[in-house]
Amino acid sequence: MRDPHPGYCARLRSVTRSSRLHFLHFPQLACLLALLAGCSSISSPYSPRETLGWIANNLFGPSERYAELSELIPHAVVLNEIEPALSLGFFGDVMQMKGKRLEFGQDLVGFFADADYLVGNFEGVVTTIPGGPMASVQTGAVLEALGRLFPPERTVLTNANNHTCDFGGTELAESLRIQKQHGFITIGAREEPSVLLDGRINVVSVTEWSNRPCEHLARLEDASAARDPDAALNVLAPHWGYEMQLYPTPEQIERGKSLLGEWDLIVGHHTHYPQVITAYDIGPVRKLLAYSLGDFCTYLPIENYLQGIVLRVEVGPAEDGVWRVGRVDWRCSAIDQGDDEVTRVDLADRCRYFEAPEEAPEKG
To answer: What is the 3-class SS of the chain, one letter each residue?
Structure first.
């Protein structure tokens, strides 16, 4: 088979001879070796060219390309003047833990303590079936740990992501049943893409990607069908974009702005390292768009996978009675892999790549 990207593959071959390979874990190495054997497609949601970008971002990244196109908002900012009614907390990807015990620091617990609801991405399937190198196996122990972070009955787990169909529809249904058995609110299946919180806030989980062909998940292109015109606020949680990129592409920025025309708040995931969190003026309203919150927890002792963003927003009616996002608070979180048996997640003293401005950027 002819090498479709000879320059790119040669660059990757050079990297395999360098010491940088110690940053790779087995799934990445397996993917890389498959590419080096012929740069052919693998079990991936990406095209061959996009897969090559994924490999490069993991080897040399995260990528800082397109940094000039997005403005980071301060750690604490008021987007719109409102009467606060509810507080929503958000966290990123809950990755598989491979038997490691998951614990949370008090600063992180305190950050979410006053939230009315918590929303996070549950990446994988609760199953006893052994997973292959690219599959994500979750366990009841991870669910129990999340239940110690925040009350499960007020925690929404989004399940529309690229790993949810790793074991097919039957195991997906069983995984959702187990999550609910632990008390969590689950969304993202095609038949159950959303939930109405407090009778007022509609949260929708959709995905752009799936590692395997899958008809069981709510898809990003069908998100509008899950929007509730009677809800006070519509929140979209998309699984989208590209892994190990700090900033969205021009195409994703335009797509995000377009989606904000019908959604009041967008909080995404998928990139594993957090992406920029920003805001746009959509008509008279300042709307929040967190492109991706990165990893919330993982067993992997790989530096670029060990930081995320946690987010808290106040929502409520403005002077005209229309609900909007008011105060926004966000912090970087850190995943501590210093113990062979325990993974600990807490707020980080600083963000590795992002330095938040002290003042809000000008509207535009």
So the answer is: CCCCCHHHHHHHHHHHCCHHHHHCCHHHHHHHHHHHCCCCCCCCCCCHHHHHHHHHHHHHCCECCCHHHCCCCCCEEECCCCCCCEEEEEEEEECCCCCCEEEECHHHHHHHCCCCEEEEEECCEECCCCCCCCCCEECHHHHHHHHHHCCHHHEEEECCCCCCCCCHHHHHHHHHHHHHHCCCEEECECCECEEEECCCEEEEEEECCCCCCCCCECEHHHHHHHCCCCCCEEEEEEECCCCCECCCCHHHHHHHHHHCCCCCEEECECCCCCCCEEEEEECCEEEEEECCCEEEECCCCCHHHCEEEEEEEEEEECCCCCEEEEEEEEEEEEEECCCCCEEEEEECCCCCCCCCCCCCCCCC
∠ Cα 204 183 311 (to 5°): 50
Give tens-digit pLDDT for 161-220: 999 999 999 999 999 999 999 999 999 999 999 999 999 999 999 999 999 999 999 999
Q: Give the separation between CA 40 and CA 35, rounded to whole angstroms.
A: 6
Q: Which two tokens stand for residue 98?
A: 């491979």
What is the value of pTM for the model shown? Answer: 0.88
Instruction: Give pLDDT, residue 132.
Output: 78
User: Model confidence over 237-291: pLDDT tens digits?
Assistant: 999 999 999 999 999 999 999 999 999 999 999 999 999 999 999 999 999 999 9
- Cβ-based neighbour number of residue 2 at 10 Å: 6
> Which residue in this structure is represented by tokens 């690219």?
134
Average pLDDT over residues 33-45: 46
